[in-house]
Amino acid sequence: MVAGWFAGEGDDFRLLGTRCSVCASVFFPREDAHCRNPACPGGDLEEVPLSQRGRVWSYTDSRYRPPSPYVTDPELPWEPYALIAVELESERLVVLGQAVPGVTVADLAVGMEVEVVAGVLHEDAETIWTTWQWRPTGVTA
Any idea where the ChsH2 rubredoxin-like zinc ribbon domain is (predicted)? Predict the structure, then answer.
């Protein structure tokens, strides 16, 4: 889990961003040092929960094991997954993330509504690495 990027569980799970007090730009991943908007003189940044639902802006699938320096266990089989870019309308930004297990590119369409849920990126005997995933609304998993 990346500290400060998301919080909550179940229906309360939310991605966390930051908003500039001067220009109202929202950032994800969060920004804690300065406003990244080049047209803004800068202001205080406050943590804000992002919308839990958005619309598919684009998508693709990942069909190969990532090369070095990404760490993957060569002993485990590689499982392809769908990667979704989701537009959060009220924040005016696009957030990238994996689809929930079982959702493939064949299940996706540009403009369809999806919701953010907690997911497992990887787990071993000692650690579960939590992340966010996108799930089409109306689908339970």
Answer: 10-46
- How many CA atoms lie within 13 Å of 56's alpha carbon, on the beta-carbon side? 22
Can you give the pLDDT at residue 96?
A: 95
pLDDT of residue 1: 54
Backbone angles phi, psi at 95, to 5 degrees: -115, 130
33-55 in b/e form (b: 16+ CB < 10 A) is eebebeeeeebebeebebbbebe
Q: Name the residue ranges covered by the structural domains of the chain.
A: 1-50, 51-141
Cα–Cα distance measured from residue 72 to residue 127, given in angstroms and rounded to the nearest whole number: 15
DSSP string across 9-78: -GGG-EEEEEEETTT--EESS---SS---TT-----EEEEEPPSEEEEEEEEEE-SPPPTTS---TTSPP
Kindly report the number of other CB atoms within 10 A of residue 103's CB atom. Answer: 21
d(CA 20, CA 43): 6
Total-model pTM: 0.86
Q: Using alpha carbons only, what angle is made at residue 15 by residues 3 and 109, rounded to the nearest 5 degrees? A: 135
